[in-house]
Write the structure tokens for this entry.
Amino acid sequence: MRAVLQGQIESLTLEGHGVTRVEGKVYFVDGALPGETVEFEVKRSRRKHGHAKLTQIIEANSDNGRVEPDCEYFGVCGGCSFRHYEPIRQLEAKQQALLDALERIGRVTPNQIIEPATADWLHYRRKARLGIRFVEKKGGALVGFREKGSSFITPLNQCFTLTKPLSDLLPGLAKLVNSLTIRQKLPQIEVAQGDNQISLVFRHLQALSQKDLDLIESFAKVNQIQAFLQPKGLDSIHPLYPKVPEELYYKLDDFDLRFYFAPTDFIQVNSKANQLLINMALDFLNLQADDRVLDLYCGLGNFSLPLAQKCKHVLGVEGDKRLVDKAIANADKNHLDNVTFQQQDLSDQQADFSWLSDQYNKVLLDPARSGAALVCQQFVNYKPEKIVYVSCNPTTLARDANVLTNLASYQLTHAGIINMFPHTAHIESIAVFER
Ligand SMILES: C[S@@+](CC[C@H](N)C(=O)[O-])C[C@H]1O[C@@H](n2cnc3c(N)ncnc32)[C@H](O)[C@@H]1O
């Protein structure tokens, strides 16, 4: 039998779990918020800590920010962690998590905390991977996000984080999958919305019959979307309908730029927050006409192209060859000739970093969750005057900030959060380092 305990919630983790201590042991209680006394059921227990689920709020705190979740799937679906928490409290919690990480891991405090930058709270996510399971006893195909802490799928009829047009496809997608002969061999669908079109990529582990192909094609026609098939790796993706699809693009209106991308490419998922983020990054870089700027982990050029409009030269570096090719094409399509791109694995210890010489005086970094440890070590020798670090993981940002401030003698002048992923546990942040 699982233990049921009581405790008072002291704080909140980065994953949105309430933290309590009972007899010296720490419990992470899913669904509980600071200021509440709760009863919880222990799901997993280790020597010093355990994971638990909220079963009852014994003593609520009317002033602790708890709100009625607006989504029927909240608590089960792993997509969101904070729909039960007032927006302003979510921002405070994320900002505090960033500052705590900087202090605890980075041993640094920013000179100035930037006000949280926020855009839409609902229907903001323009790209996602939907999981699929066929479970006969649950009525057939389940299409949605993973359940919290499990590999089961939450079947979704709608989703408040996906853009409205993507959310509206959900009920029809479940019906479509149910009608396919290979419904048990379809693990996922990638959905991506550009400013011009929606594309869906159906990953399938078995050949589709002609009837299956007809059904997917007619779903695409009725919903006016583009359907692609993926029988193997990314190279195997090919269009089903229309035969010659439109390339997806998103616009950055403030810069009059268009970025073309494939439905499986990395793009910033929240269009408005992305625009805010780029404006902030460029403001902090305080670009001058003769600046030479590095954009590391540049993807398809999301920052490189706006940077290039404001300075002399930009070098974008990116590990994924596909994205490097997209970045080159995007620069070309936007008629920018002062930006070059190169492919390099920036975490390869053997890599040649000689291009990081002092001819580049400013740097933008936007690494993946693992951060930019090796790159930041290079700044102990090559010392650009300004580094703007955009991060999706406060822990690795803090680790790298430690190197930049304590070994490379930079000042952390500003840090703050951008609400790129409202209601979820993800924290997007920006930090500015100056010599
Ligand atoms: C958070 S994304 C940012 C992309 C781009 N700045 C944007 O705004 O769209 C991180 C990028 O780092 C790239 N990346 C991840 N690990 C890398 C590595 N070891 N070396 C170089 N690039 C890497 C990924 O392919 C991805 O494009």
The CA atoms of residues 132 and 187 lie 5 Å apart. The longest helix spans residues 87-104. The longest strand covers residues 49-59. Residues 91-120+266-434 form a domain with the Rossmann fold fold (CATH 3.40.50.150).
